[in-house]
């Protein structure tokens, strides 16, 4: 079963230096989908240190649970976030876009 439109849970504001958790969930897909996160239209790599665009960020990303955890939040983490669910059946589905202000 292809995934439906995922739901992104993004805090509208996050405190710099604190922890922020963004969640992506989708209930219809079978097999259960994996999740990707995007900031301002750019995919977040699994390891922020691997990308010049994200090396200032400190986060962990779990493609199976859809959890994106910033620890700590930095001022550069402000942006527009959305997630995408895909499971090799049908086409990937994108969530709505939400802004997080640090």
TrEMBL record:
SUPFAM superfamilies for the chain: Immunoglobulin
Q: Which domain of life is it from?
A: Eukaryota
Region of interest (Disordered), ranges: 24-62
UniProt keyword terms in alphabetical order: Cell junction, Cell membrane, Disulfide bond, Glycoprotein, Immunoglobulin domain, Membrane, Phosphoprotein, Repeat, Signal, Tight junction, Transmembrane, Transmembrane helix
Topology in the lipid bilayer? Single-pass type I membrane protein
Q: Which residues form the Ig-like domain?
A: 2-99
* Family annotation (PROSITE patterns): IG_LIKE
Keyword Membrane recorded = yes
Keyword Acyltransferase in annotation: no
Which Pfam family, an example, fits this chain? Ig_3
Chief subcellular location equals: other
Q: Where in the cell is it found?
A: Cell junction, Tight junction; Cell membrane
Q: Which GO terms describe its biological process?
A: cell adhesion; establishment of endothelial intestinal barrier; intestinal absorption; regulation of membrane permeability
Matching InterPro entries: F11R (IPR042456), Ig-like_dom (IPR007110), Ig-like_dom_sf (IPR036179), Ig-like_fold (IPR013783), Ig_sub (IPR003599), Ig_sub2 (IPR003598)
Single GO cellular component term: bicellular tight junction
Assembly and interactions?
Interacts with the ninth PDZ domain of MPDZ. Interacts with the first PDZ domain of PARD3. The association between PARD3 and PARD6B probably disrupts this interaction. Interacts with ITGAL (via I-domain). Interacts with CD151.
Q: Which family is it part of?
A: Belongs to the immunoglobulin superfamily.
Protein name (database record): Junctional adhesion molecule A
Q: Give the organism the record lists.
A: Melospiza melodia (Song sparrow)
């Amino acid at each position: 079963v292809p995934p439906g439109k995922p739901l992104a849970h993004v805090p509208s504001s996050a405190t710099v230096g604190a922890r922020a958790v963004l969640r992506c969930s989708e209930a219809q897909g079978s097999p259960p989908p994996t999740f990707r996160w995007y900031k301002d239209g750019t995919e977040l790599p699994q390891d922020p240190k691997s990308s010049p665009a994200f090396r200032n960020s400190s986060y962990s990303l779990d493609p199976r649970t859809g959890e994106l955890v910033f620890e700590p939040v930095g001022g550069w983490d402000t942006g527009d976030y959305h997630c995408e669910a895909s499971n090799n059946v049908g086409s990937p589905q994108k969530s709505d876009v939400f802004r997080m202000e640090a």
